[in-house]
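Re: duplicated header lines in exported structure tokens

Our pipeline writes sequence and tokens for each protein into one text file. With two proteins the header for the second block appears twice in some exports. Here is an export where it did not happen, for reference. First protein block:
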Amino acid sequence: MKALPIIGALPPLPSLPLPSVRRLLPGGLTGLSTALLKATALEIAILAGHLLLYPSGITQERRPPAPPSPSRSPGTAPLRLPTQDRPPVVLLHGFIDNRSVFVLLRRSLAQHGGQRVESLNYSPLTCDIRTAAALLGRHIEEICERTGSERADVVGHSLGGLIARYYVQRLGGDHRVRTLVTLGTPHSGTRVARLANAHPIARQMRPGSDVLEELAGPAPGCRTRFVSFWSDLDHVMDPPEAARLDHPDLTTRNIRVTGIGHLALPVHPAVASVVRQVLDEAHQTDSGTTADAIANAAPDTAPDTGGITVA
């Protein structure tokens, strides 16, 4: 199978928003500003660690070979692998990043979720979210065929979540993706890093881009459930609420994370724990709910359902 030429990103080193800090310091360091300083220090530490791990994730992940099909009578349908109890989980990184960003989250899901977990790499040379979404769809079809599962769960960090969302909403991927979890994904566009506008992908992540306008359009009957994690200290999202997903036709759940920044979202154990819970809930719901009921479920339009506070 050909390697997936898709996408991902090491976001720029987060800068400390000094004007906002000053507004928080009328007479001394407040609790929120202390959290901001801690989050920035954690982002720097995670960036340093990720730079060390980055070379290990450049190559595409090795896929386990499919076992040989048993002999069958001529004219019969090809045999498939037995369907697993839980669907596989596909991890998709962000802009100019690679699968190494998911080392800890992958381990957590594999150890506690009882699911097959696979990480996909896409090429940093990819210049269009639509192209990347189509390639993602081909990979998910291959994974479902190889594992015998009808559907898969997807966890996307930053741009990876936007690629997966385009596949689900615009390319019919809702018949394959049961739950899409996004971590710091610019659903309504981010205004940060204007110098990155030279890259076509960066322009597609700006507010008002053609891609985001397509995603804001009607999506009736979409069967995928969306869970969006957003952090109030994510300085790659401008504004931070850009990582919330609010769409009248989608079944959405927004989870606010307090105390960490953009790079920590796919790394922090507290986030990993809630991601596991989200996938567990989806499995329990599917176990007692028909596909038609899920497709017709009313979208969750509550401001935020639950949250995580990281000390």
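Second protein block, exported in the same file:
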Amino acid sequence: MIGHSLSVIAVDYARHTKPFINDKSSLNRHCYLVRLQIKGKCRVSIRGKEYDLGPGDMVFSIPNQGYVLDIGGVDQPIDSADYYLICDGPWIKQWWEESSLPDVANIELDEGLLFIWRKLIMEKRNVHENNSEMLETLLKLFFLSLGRLLKDSKAISPRSRTYISYQIKTYIERHATKPLTLPHIAAHHNVSVSTASQLFKQSFGQTIMSYVLEVRLSIATQRIMIGGMKLEDIAEYAGFQSYPYFCRTFRTRYGVSPSQFRGHDPYNRS
């Protein structure tokens, strides 16, 4: 890693309940800025062009581009929240140039990206340790994850039927350990049960509930290999409502019972 090839100038979460105008033109003269609106509305000006933003809208501003944030309201209460990141470095410049970014893009509010963002905030606030390498690594991970997110959002239009399938898939992966039913999943994505089932089957070649079981079994096998938990507790941890059902499903999928799988663990971590 090239020392000091990336630099975090400022990174934080901001919430505004009163009118606010911030002209970062002077700071932005030498830095790159990324800002994600997660709640409420605001207006930004970039190179003299104005954009009205809502949740999911992300701003990209390069050095010497000019950036003004305006959060205001006359007829309605103000409640605006966002994450922002101001950074610099040769690696950032190269990533930015290769990504061909617009001034504003709407993205899915991805929990993975927000987790990295929050980790960057915590590390930036940590002034008692020499954590420059940690910050550089997190910053690079942030932009690589953001690049993948932007690529996926371009490949799948939010208006397409395929987009709904991928939304359902992501939702299952995030909530597989919780009680899930087909009607609940369909309602969450504002489609009928038949539409959700049909779209998912067309995109991934399997039913929604079979994928729920697949994710839960993957979680269970990983937990078994780690060790330290009873099989009954692992079944509950992975989202199975019944231990006997977990055992039957596990045997059907892997050809052995959970206890046999644990006994064959080459690392003997039971």
